[in-house]
Design goal:
The protein is about 35% helix and about 20% strand. The chain is α/β, with parallel strands linked by helices. The strands form 2 sheets. Strands 1, 4, 5, 6, 7, 8, 9, 10, 11 and 12 form a 10-stranded mixed beta sheet that branches. Strands 2-3 form a two-stranded antiparallel ribbon.
């Protein structure tokens, strides 16, 4: 299937145009995941990370999978909603085989990640999630990493690249530049755009909060189907990720995130300075590759709109073959190759 996902590319360097070398061989899917995590068959044949680690970092005890050599260049892979670390289960072995130390954390509200204090606000604002990853890097002694991400993870990765560029060796972001601004988002959109964001409006109501809490697994399966209409995932693949939604803070984090985005609830004052910087839509100067599939059913910006936000070495890759919103899981070879290529642009 990956043979169908041949990317069309546009590349920009600071001082000249050129093409990244795309010929580096990647290990096959069955490659080693490294000492800390191994691909293992799950029920129905869906592979899983075989083991997890935890580390106290900032507000959280973060659960993460690790793959590859401990002394390799670091790649941190960040998932979104409603997905989990298994979006990268077929990406990690490829990167590990290429020599990367791969870190795949469960974001706040997902999997085995837990808050350290009961009284910490279950806050889903973008600044809080970004600070989580800086805290994780500090806790693991990671000075710099390549970031590969989609959905919430891509927003987080964009924030790190814009605000802490010294920590980011390269950025691979599905759907491009996703840093948000609640004041701007509070303005109503045209009807078709509002329809595309129906779940955000749903979560703005108590009915939506209660409905999501009552059955997150069925809700999120529907989102998967909408966001990736041509992706024929099986039940074992979905259930593998659905277990991550059993986190006790999941509903609170998701609902707060979508309410905060449109200015219906506040965040925390400790993130005000960061959010003020993000509200200016800062540019991203680190080497970057943005990606988009040809069948993304979720709301996403046109690449032409955000290309100018990337002021350094930059390339956009468009994937054909029915690739939807969950690009790393639907096209893992292409995503892994982008992570490898981004520091070589």
């Amino acid at each position: 299937m990956d043979a169908l996902h041949t990317p069309s590319t546009t590349t920009r360097r600071r001082s000249f145009l050129g093409s990244a070398a795309l010929g580096l061989a990647i290990a096959p899917l069955g490659g080693l995941l490294g000492s800390a995590a191994h691909a293992a068959p799950a029920s129905g044949g869906a592979a899983r990370f075989g083991s997890y680690k935890t580390v106290d970092a900032g507000d959280l005890r973060v659960e993460y999978a690790e793959a590859g050599p401990a002394n390799g260049p670091v790649a941190i892979l960040l998932h979104g909603w409603p997905y989990d670390i298994h979006a990268f289960v077929d990406v990690a072995p490829r990167l590990a085989a290429a020599g990367y130390r791969v870190i795949v954390p469960s974001l706040r509200g997902y999997g085995g990640t837990r808050f350290l204090a009961a009284d910490t606000l279950r806050n889903g604002q973008q600044g809080a999630v970004a600070q989580d990853i800086i805290a994780l890097m500090d806790a693991l002694g990671i000075r710099q990493a390549v970031l590969g991400a989609f959905d919430w993870g891509a927003r987080t990765a964009c924030i790190l690249a814009a605000i802490w560029p010294e920590r980011v060796a390269g950025l691979v972001s599905v759907s491009g530049y996703l840093i948000g601004n609640p004041k701007a988002n509070a303005k109503p959109l045209p009807p078709a755009a509002e329809f595309a964001w129906w779940y955000q409006s749903y979560f703005a109501t108590d009915r939506g909060r209660d409905g999501y809490a009552a059955n997150p697994a069925a809700f999120n399966r529907f989102i998967w189907q909408q966001a990736s209409p041509k992706w024929q995932f099986d039940e074992a693949t979905y259930q593998r990720s659905a277990q991550s939604f059993d986190n006790p803070d999941h509903v609170a984090i998701v609902v707060h995130n979508y309410r905060w985005r449109i200015g219906l609830v506040g965040g925390e004052a400790r993130f005000d300075a960061l959010e003020s910087r993000l509200a200016t839509a800062p540019s991203i100067a680190v080497p970057s590759i943005t990606m988009e599939g040809d069948a993304n059913g979720a709301p996403h910006p046109d690449p032409a709109v955000y290309a100018k936000k990337f002021t350094g070495r930059y390339q956009h890759r468009h994937l054909a073959g029915g690739i939807g919103h969950n690009l790393p899981q639907e096209a893992p070879a292409a995503f892994a190759q982008a992570v490898i290529d981004v520091t070589r642009l």
